[in-house]
User: Which sequence fits this backbone?
């Protein structure tokens, strides 16, 4: 199971759409909650439709159409998304209306859009795409579940291109609520200082990242996706390390072959050692990169990381703003993304140069 | 890729019983579970009948041997009951013997708790244990809890595609085995009633104020329900030496791409999903002995589904019924619950009656089965599930 990444479309807190620039001038914030830089939606949607739609639906539609255009495929053979929270803004809106109006005078729009598969459905509806359509909603495995499904789909007869997305939005209320269980930093931190913040919690984020995966090679591919792995509640960090080494072995690779490792370092003092330990124990000779300071933390953030990995492999450059230490490699052939959500969900993706 | 997928275990809880035995008893007695709403405080309590599981959360906890104070959502409790039964019925004692996965599904995660405490969540002055429920909101949370109870670690995930969610989790399970990612997988879904869902369907004006009448010309809408249904899928290697209940021979998913919540008049998505399921199974429509329809009882669904079925089966539609008048529409769980019923249909050569059906729909030529039948061999069952966003799924179960 391998797939070519033929197109990408990313809406994030960075300038990642309508540009060929690869983070040469990252947008720097001083905050504990990052929001996306949103496109002008009339480019992608009828304005009347856009007005009724929740923010994440619009971000998803924009990112997916950028991706399909980038990949030169108008209608994919499957649409598969991953989202931990779904259409949270609409869910919240309907829930509050129920509570505030004591279950009276309600209108259906936000309920209809609150369903977790609304983004994948609306993409299908816009494209009139009647093909396979799935939405995974498993916390820190949501995006990887979609990726794995996409790779399995590409093995099936008649399937050539699949659209895979990861998307999650943050709202003011949900930020407040999840602050109560210690997810986020209390203080505002400048983007480039997050890595050294040494406090509990991370910076919240959001985004919509779409990829067109294909089983046919093309001239303009970004990279090849070799493997995706999900590790649930490992007993200890050694387990994760040996699973990663095992995965590399299956692909006839050793840690020495991994030129660049992207770590989900979030500045949360409770979890960051997991990454540093892996770096020390296994990937000491690889170039180290991090990404959550630019995107914030969210459960499908590895979609943002995958975009960075695809760009690194395609452009053969590593932006200074994501480097930890120096770039030790002249050529980047293999990139490994390792992320953990709350030390419960661990995910690994392996990409290589085309 | 053309591996056989064996069904070796089933587990179910719904308004018609806490387990397989009680469910069988209810369908044999043609006893519907639709009735009053007791466990949720809502303004609409007396306006709509529902298919409710008649246990409080504390009672469900007790049933599972948990302390009644345990902070577990209803969705999770129902899921554990059914998934545990499925695993036990498959005779799985050592989870580590084979690579084992759990794929669950639901529509609104921990909403039944979130809606109770939402204002308190938002008020930092308000302190207490309820804060723990914040972590239960995500759809993946119940799957995680079920996996932890069952000791499953090799592969877990959750699907949410509205009312086709758990049919899709079953389909994914089969594909995971075929792709050699797991050797066996517990698949299905769970959903509890919530004020959120009740009010949502109220605004759509598709709830029947009486007991629902799927495929009746005078149908007025659906009855909501709750519950969980799981089945165990195993590869040939893992199932060796076991009693095989049946095989999952076909599956298909397609999108109607017509409207966010309503299905197309011609049932395009439904048609494509069934067509794909036939392709995977290598069967023809004439091979099907029973169709367990999605049949919600809404004007739009039953016409759309019926039309799609006629397009595919012509004038030779086999025995068909919707079991929603027994259980209510259990949303994210219905594909799992109806999978269990489909497996039982094969095991006991049973066709369930489509309760409350009186008036023939003029648009359709077929008439669903009105009385329980047990005298005809049932070798292949088609089970449909359709959801918001045009999500359409079909599964085919076949005698081993």
Assistant:
């Amino acid at each position: 199971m391998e797939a070519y990444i033929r197109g990408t479309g990313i809406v994030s807190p960075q300038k990642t759409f309508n540009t060929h620039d690869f983070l040469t001038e990252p947008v720097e914030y001083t905050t504990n909650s990052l929001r996306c830089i949103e496109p002008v939606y009339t480019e992608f949607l009828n304005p009347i439709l856009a007005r009724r739609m929740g923010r994440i639906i619009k971000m998803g539609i924009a990112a997916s159409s950028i991706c399909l255009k980038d990949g030169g495929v108008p209608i994919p053979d499957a649409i598969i998304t991953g989202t931990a929270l779904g259409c949270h803004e609409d869910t919240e809106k309907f829930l509050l209306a129920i509570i505030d109006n004591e279950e009276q005078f309600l209108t259906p729009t936000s309920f209809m859009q609150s369903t977790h598969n609304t983004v994948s459905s609306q993409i299908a509806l816009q494209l009139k795409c009647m093909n396979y359509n799935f939405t995974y909603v498993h916390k820190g495995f949501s995006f990887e579940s979609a990726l794995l499904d996409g790779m399995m789909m590409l093995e099936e007869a008649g399937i050539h291109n699949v659209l895979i997305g990861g998307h999650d939005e943050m709202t003011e209320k949900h930020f407040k609520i999840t602050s109560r269980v210690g997810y986020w930093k209390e203080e505002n931190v400048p983007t480039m200082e997050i890595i050294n913040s040494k406090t509990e919690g991370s910076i919240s984020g959001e985004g919509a990242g779409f990829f067109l995966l294909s089983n046919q090679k093309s001239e303009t591919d970004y990279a090849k996706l070799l493997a995706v792995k999900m590790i649930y509640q490992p007993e200890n960090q050694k387990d994760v390390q040996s699973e990663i080494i095992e995965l590399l072995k299956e692909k006839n690779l050793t840690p020495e072959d991994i030129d660049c490792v992207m770590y989900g370092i979030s500045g949360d003092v409770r979890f960051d050692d997991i990454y540093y330990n892996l770096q020390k124990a296994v990937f000491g000779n690889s170039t180290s990169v991090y990404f959550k300071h630019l995107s914030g933390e969210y459960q499908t953030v590895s979609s943002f990381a995958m975009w960075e990995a695809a760009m690194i492999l395609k452009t053969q450059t590593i932006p200074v703003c994501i480097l930890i230490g120096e770039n030790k490699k002249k050529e980047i052939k293999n990139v490994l993304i390792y992320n953990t959500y709350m030390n419960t969900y661990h995910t690994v993706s392996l990409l290589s140069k085309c | 890729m053309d591996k056989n997928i064996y069904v070796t275990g089933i587990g179910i809880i719904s308004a018609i019983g806490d387990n397989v035995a009680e469910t069988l008893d209810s369908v044999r007695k043609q006893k519907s579970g639709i009735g009053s709403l007791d466990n949720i405080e809502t303004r609409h309590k007396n306006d709509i009948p529902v298919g409710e599981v008649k246990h409080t959360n504390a009672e469900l906890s007790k049933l599972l041997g948990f302390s009644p104070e345990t902070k577990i959502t209803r969705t999770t409790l129902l899921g554990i009951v059914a998934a545990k039964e499925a695993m036990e019925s498959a005779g799985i004692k050592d989870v580590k013997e084979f690579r084992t996965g759990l794929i669950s599904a639901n529509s609104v995660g921990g909403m039944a708790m979130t809606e109770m405490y939402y204002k308190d969540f938002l008020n930092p002055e308000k302190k207490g244990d309820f804060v723990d429920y914040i972590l239960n909101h995500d759809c993946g949370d119940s799957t995680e809890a079920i996996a932890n109870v069952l000791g499953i670690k090799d592969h877990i995930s959750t699907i949410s595609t509205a009312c086709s969610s758990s049919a899709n989790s079953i389909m994914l399970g089969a594909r995971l085995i075929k792709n050699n990612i797991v050797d066996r997988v517990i698949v299905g879904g769970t959903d509890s009633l919530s004020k959120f869902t009740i009010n949502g369907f109220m605004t759509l004006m598709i709830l029947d104020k009486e007991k629902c009448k799927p495929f009746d010309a005078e149908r007025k809408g659906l009855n909501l329900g709750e519950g969980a249904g799981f089945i165990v899928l195993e590869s040939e290697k893992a199932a060796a030496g076991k009693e095989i209940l049946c095989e999952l021979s076909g599956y298909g998913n397609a999108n109607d791409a017509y409207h966010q919540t309503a299905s197309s008049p011609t049932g395009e998505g439904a048609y494509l999903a069934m067509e794909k399921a036939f392709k995977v199974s290598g069967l023809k429509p004439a091979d099907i002995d029973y169709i367990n329809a999605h049949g919600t009882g809404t004007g739009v669904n039953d016409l759309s589904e019926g039309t799609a079925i006629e397009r595919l089966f012509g004038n030779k539609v086999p025995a068909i019924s919707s079991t929603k008048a027994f259980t209510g529409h259990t949303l994210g769980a219905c594909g799992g619950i109806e999978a269990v019923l489909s497996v039982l249909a094969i095991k006991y050569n049973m066709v369930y009656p489509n309760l409350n059906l009186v008036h023939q729909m003029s648009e359709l030529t077929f008439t669903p089965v009105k009385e329980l039948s047990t005298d005809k061999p049932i070798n292949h069952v088609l089970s449909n599930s359709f959801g918001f966003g045009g999500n359409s799924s079909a599964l085919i179960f076949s005698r081993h």
About this structure: Chain A has a mean pLDDT of 97. Chain A is about 30% helix and 20% strand.
